[in-house]
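Methods: example folding runs. The two proteins below were folded one after another, and each record is reproduced exactly as written to the output file, sequence line first and structure-token line second.
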Amino acid sequence: MRIVVLTLFPSIVTGPLQESIIKRGQQKGLVEINVRNLRDWTHDRHHTADDKPYGGGHGMLMKPEPIFEAIDEICGAERKNWRIVLMTPSGKTFNQAQAREFAQNQKVLILCGHYEGIDERVREALVTDEISIGDYVLTNGALSALVVIDAVVRLIPGVIGDEMSNVDESFSDHLLEYPQYTRPEEYRGMRVPDVLLSGNHQEIAKWRKEQAEDRTKQRRPDLLK
């Protein structure tokens, strides 16, 4: 899989890509992640990537020219084979199902918004997906792009050693994950539930399902809809 991040602030993105599971996925050759500076496609000495909005208003907008030229160069004649994802507060809320869908694509370009947004012509002509990671506003889309990359890369077959961990975790079947425990059996008066020590895998599976359902009802009843 190939992922390209197009941003005005590459240094925000590059550090986390060299850690943990994302790093291992790259080392195994299962994913290639390139971070590109959008200012490389500007043509003035100040590398201007933004301008005032027509009609007035607060803030600045990202200009269309650098974005169009960058995507033309990166995607080339195969642009139709790319998922071009815009990180924006007005996008669809990102979830596990979307992460699985992206993980099945070979080429994903993530465009990180900044300032007050982007010229609408970019959205109309280039973007295939608009994604938000929640109902709040960040300084720019670089941090949210990292969230998407992390969620997607870990779903690529072979990246995580134990493939079943992707099956049992939260949101995989519209339920939050059940409570989990490790050694010691008792700590500060708190014991591991007896069923987990029983060795009865059928009863353990039943207990975990009940716990996941109860936790979801209490904390995220919207998922059960």
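Second run, written to the same file directly after the first:
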Amino acid sequence: METKPLRVKTVVISDVHLGTFDCKIREVNHFLKHTRCERLILNGDILDGWRLKKTGYWPKSHTRFVRIILKKLEKRDTDVIYLRGNHDDVLAKFLPIEFENLRIVEEFVHESARGKYLVLHGDVFDAITKNFVFLAYIGDWGYRVLMRLNRLYNQLRAWQGKEYYSLSKAVKARVKSAVSHVSNFETHIANLARHRGCVGVMCGHIHTAADKMLGDIHYLNSGDWVESLTAIVEHYDGRFEVIDFAHFRELYPLEEDPSEAESVAAGNELPAS
């Protein structure tokens, strides 16, 4: 008997990074296929334009993601809000854009039972990303090197029968400057929400999922679909929750689908044919 999809009022995902090899496309597609919502918020860096224009890497599974979103728009009557991130900043030239129940915007105010939530990607508070683009690209290169090591490390773990382990998450959790950066980011974005008269904020960008109170501001970060594999959902009773895919797949097992396999060697980002 097929398991009924998870029905919630709102789903928020960010940092999918379509167009990169490290995007956990099979998992995010599975999550979206097994959820139903009135509103889907795509909170930035869904498409990774930085990598896409260099490699042209775009497998069929990434097209499948787009089709899932279109199906939600057309057949499920889902309200889709797409917010610009820093890796898909090419969209900034054309904002705002609105087609029926699809909106592409810089930021958004989400009305909830608890009050107003400011929704934005969050890169506006990253001084390096905003003011020193060349340093941001260097950081992106270093991150990709770390993720490549992460793939090799997890291949070894898989051969040993061990579960996936994120090296990059472990590094960020242990490096003092990274921890300080996350803390400063959260403080700044909470202050902005407070200034805008909102009770909370929903963001992404730093690939660190969170659900906590920062003073009187409810801070929610949807994490990413490269490392943490997390999303925010708003239940019909007004409650917000960060969903971890590791727990989600216990209720909705990830099917073995040969069509999902990509013809790309591990550790390489090659242009699509």
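Comment on the second run: The chain has a mean pLDDT of 83.
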